[in-house]
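FAQ
Q: What does a multi-component entry look like?
A: The components come first, one per line:
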Amino acid sequence: MKARYLTILGVLSLAAAALTSCTDAIFATIEAERKVATNTLSQTISVFDIATVAPGVPGGPYYVAAGGVFQGTLSAGTMSWYPADTTRPLNPSGLLCNAMVYYPSTSALWGGFISSSGAPGLYKSSAGPNFSFASRVPIGDSAIINKQAILLQVANNHLFMVSTPDTINYELDYKADGASPWVAGFLSTLSKPVAGVAWDGTHYWAASGTNVYRSVDPPTTSSFIAPPVSPNLSGDQVNGVFADPVKGYAFLATKKNGVFFTTNGGTTWNQITAPIVGSATVSYLCVAGPIDGATSDKYLVGSDGYGYYTLSISGNSLSRFGDSTVSLYSESVARILVDGVNVFMGTNANGLWRAVFDTNAGALASGQAWIHE
Amino acid sequence: MLVLTCGSAPIFAADTPGAAASQYALGDQTMSINAGLFVPMFLLPTGTVLLAGNPPQLTFGAVGSLSWAAYVTPQIRLGVDVAGNFTLSPNSNVLLMLPFVAKGAYVFTFYPFELPLSFGIGMNIVKYVDKSSLDLLLRPGASFYWIYNSSWSFGVNLLYWFDMQFNTDPAKTRYGNFLEFSLSALYHF
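Then the predicted structure of the entire assembly, as tokens:
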């Protein structure tokens, strides 16, 4: 009897030993884990936009549209945020901000706001250095009044607004410079909102649903047409449009088919297919960069629920941010701002993240970690 | 509560057979349910103390288990148990362990108390964020029971968890050391 039990124990032990050959280094991971530093912004806000007032001059100040408008000042490696609560002193009274951009031609921030009753308004901030929308009145231009701004973007120093005039259709509106009136309907009666507008140094790019548009400069109401070759987006949806005007690259972040990019104005497209995580196809939301300075080989791609990926042009690849102990690893990154070495990532319902990158390596700088602002 | 319960043993003990002799024999079986505190101690070979720091690398956790055993002699019982525990990391990620252990125990009886010294070996399924691991677990320990009657005993367990997490990269191989303090209800049938 004893021998039988000992045999059973022996077999179980051998089985256990054999099974231990497949293992992740969990204890070593925990050993290296460090608590994420936090700041005063709510860690549950949804970030609609991140703007820097002095693009190309790293250090900000930075503004975040997340219902409230928040101003961030970077000093000695630490951000100070105003306000530090949810009172929204930088907003027009009673309104929530869902779109924002800094428009150099006007030396002001532009913001899309909406009231609790759904009344929309486009606002231009007060003059700097401390920009504010408080006590401002909505832009009265008849071309865009009563249209809800969904997205505001500056491309080639022109201001574009993705709007919905009736909550059913979407359109793309345009302002050439600070003095020009708005021109409505560069693209109009769209069934899907324009996912972004970008300038690659030669062309403007925009996308709505599965349709990709390219425009010459200057854009006109009829200039946004399909590029020479459109990527195969059947059954898909473009979630983000980005272009690098220095290198002439244009990127499309898609829901199902990964990231498409062109280095020749849309004559040919490269596709980096979306990876499968578990049983789900990774959906991408936005592209930004480059993060490796003049090399311009690496760009950041925000995903829907899988943190961010680094895109390599030369490697034609996407690699996921690998630190699963940081909650950013599994968050939806909807907006990315690369401002020199400072990288900001705005998430859906999980606040704003910031880190310092090494622009030679195109990765987190040595000794740096993500901060949950 | 446990002290009061044990202290009142002479009053409430329903069965009072002769001292020191086990009342169980080959074929008798036990089931126990256990719940208590899980204490992360340190990792080898790095010597990382898991409760050090603020926040610690792992917090105190909770553990629970179900155990079955059968007597092969009046003093020795062999069996298996399944347990589960969790602790939290600095970023509040949950470390889960689910071991399946084969164990043997030598039971010293000092009526109305018994002191089983046990040794378990088995596999430990460890889950952490997106990572999982199947480790070899050695688990020596001791328990102290008050024999309420011929069916029920109540007591405490002190178990040492030695979790061997090998890795193909030897630099990442770690041996986890943990303690379990748990309350136990043991049923004989």
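Q: Is there any commentary attached?
A: Sometimes. For this entry: Chain B touches chain A at residues 26, 43, 46, 48, 50, 55, 57-58, 72, 78, 89-91, 93, 95, 102, 104, 121-123, 126, 128-137, 163-167, 169, 171-174, 176 (CB under 8 Å).
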